[in-house]
Amino acid sequence: MASGDLVRLADVKAWLGIDPTDTSSDALLSSWITKASQAVINEIGRGPTLGFRTITETRDGNNGLTMALRFWPVLSVTALSINGSAVNQQTDKPFGSGYFWEAWTGDDTQGHQYIGCACTRFYRDLQNIVITYNAGYQVQGEQYTISNPPSVGTARPWYSDQGVTFVGGAALTYIATGTPATGQYTLDPTTGVYTFAVADEGREIAITYSYVPESLQQATIGIISWQWKQKDRIGVVSKSLGGQETMSYSQQPMDSLTAAMLQPFKSVIPL
To answer: On the chain, which terminus has fewer CB atoms closer than 10 Å, C or N?
Structure first.
């Protein structure tokens, strides 16, 4: 997949019933995949990416004990300051002072998570709260044994790479091209398949990567399919069939099922 794409070309062609060997529509569909992926990101208000990233939010204090973070899933919070003063992380739960946050349950549709602060408030003021945290749909340390051939596909729809380690050992080194040597790996971003050195066959590895939730993947395919059907009737609202009946066409940008799939992923906090 191109960077930022939420679905693979092969999956879209399979949904549309296009023969995998027929490449006549590949350029058009690849362009639509990128545009539809961006449309989904814009629609749910979680841009610019769903993958792992470090975010710093500067917010207005609400005078409350908790505050909803804009992006999710939140994997960790690394810093908080209120009115310019750093707040430490709470280490003695539930009695110690400091900040804490609502853990991600692993549910893709969990929604906004909250950060809280024991023994103090998010004092009301303008742009006086600064929060730094890591967020994104991520699988950490998914384990495999390198087999023959030495290639591995991830369990969830692959989105971006966050590294590979030998289980209980050192990190492997990513190389963009060429054949991996011991302790190295390559990655095909169009398929999400990792390839390792033949000399490392039999060794156990742990892959950390970002993924696309299946519902968002299917919603992206739904938008592309909707546009695929409409491309031959652009601007046509209805058509008479032999004077006996009239066929009407929807002018909506997506079908109702796709809209319903997107709903649980939408942010309610403006960017």
So the answer is: C
